[in-house]
Amino acid sequence: MQLYLGIETSCDDTSCAIYSPERGIVAYRTASQLDHAKYGGVVPEIASRTHMKTLLPLYETVMEEAGIGLGDLAGIGVTNGPGLTGSLLVGLSFAKAVAYGSGLPLAGIHHIEGHILANAIDQPMETPAVVLVVSGGHTQLFNVERPGRYELLGGTRDDAAGEAFDKIGKILGLPYPGGPSIEKAAREGDAAAFKFPRAMRSSGECDFSFSGLKTAVRLKVEELGEMSERTVVDVAASAQEAIVDALALKSVMAVERTKTSRFYIAGGVAANGRLREVMTERIGGAGAVVSWPPIEYCTDNAAMIACAAWHHLSAGRNDGLDLNTFPRGELKSWS
Ligand SMILES: Nc1ncnc2c1ncn2[C@@H]1O[C@H](COP(=O)(O)OP(=O)(O)OP(=O)(O)O)[C@@H](O)[C@H]1O
Ligand SMILES: [Mg+2]
After folding, report:
1. What DSSP letter does each residue of 112-135 carry, written as one string?
2. Ligand 2 centre from 325 Cα, in Å?
3. Which residue's alpha carbon is at the smallest distance from atom 22 of ligand 1?
């Protein structure tokens, strides 16, 4: 059995996983850093220092749970960007040390490719497909010819969808991170209570913009003044509906343009139940089948990185020990 180690430390989650193409995920652990909640966002220095403390014991636990030693591994994959430099350096330095000590091949993985290939963990990804990546830092539509071949169809001009959820959550005084809090509040609310904008609606491009929505919500909240619990859940539901509607609109456009019959959602916002519901209905209506990763593989995780490592290394693409991190950068094709 081939086994691949994945390491992910691009932001505030420390994660290790062992993936086998024959068996799927053999062992997997993520340690989320809860310290950031009290600051209302990720504090980069706290994130990297916490990775320093957490990564080695997490790796040892995962290897023990898989019942394997270094000699059983076929390769190592590590997220080397985009993300917070200090956080990325902890994971990359660790992965390099393991690769150097064991002689195993190493593959640097683009974090967004990891999110896309989270859809290939439990079953092969059907391609060609359109993939909507919706996370804390990205909102992009890709035409994926096959794993390794990515064409960007469009993306956000300003805020990412997850960032919009987080900022609106903050405006409403909901617990951090805003995404899950808004989803929870929205279940009790009326999505038609407030009319919020759907930017770029008639742009004719597969592009998004969410900063106007955030401002519209802020202005509405200022206008409302003291809000009852009922009003808060109504604003949450209406804002969620505006984000989901904008995502669905451009996703349908991408499906129609590429004439693809397969559609995947990826990234943290793919955990949103309302997004899944609306996409299933509207993408289904455009003639494509929609799916998304299991919920634990939507937000940052090393399972997707270990799976991506198998794709890279089994195709003969690997990196040297001079591999570096990058804070920003588009996903490029490598196959
Ligand atoms: N149920 C949910 N509904 C809406 N948004 C959600 C939900 N669960 C998580 N999110 C959002 O997902 C984002 C986190 O996802 P992810 O971990 O993929 O992002 P990231 O790693 O910070 O950014 P990127 O992947 O772009 O670098 C946060 O913005 C969070 O609010
Ligand atoms: Mg992410």
Report:
1. HHHHHHGGGSSSPPPSSEEEEEES
2. 15
3. 136
Q: How many CB atoms lie within 10 A of CB 275?
A: 23
| Per-residue pLDDT band at 108 (split at 50, 70, 90) | very high
* Ligand number with the minimum distance to the CA of 160: 1
- What pLDDT shows up at residue 125? 97
Is the Cβ atom of 198 under 6 angstroms away from ligand 1? Answer: no
Task: Report the Cα–Cα distance between both ends of the chain, in Å, rounded.
Answer: 24
- In DSSP terms, 265 is beta-bridged to 132
Domains of the chain: 4-118+297-314 (3.30.420.40), 126-293 (3.30.420.40)
Quote the pTM value: 0.96
The predicted-structure confidence for 30-54, as pLDDT tens digits, reads as follows 999 877 778 878 899 999 999 999 9
Choose among 137, 68, 145: nearest CA to 300.
137
81 CB less than 6 Å from ligand 1? no
User: Counting ligands in written order, which one lies closest to the CA of residue 266?
Assistant: 1
Q: Is the CB of 138 under 6 A from ligand 1?
A: yes
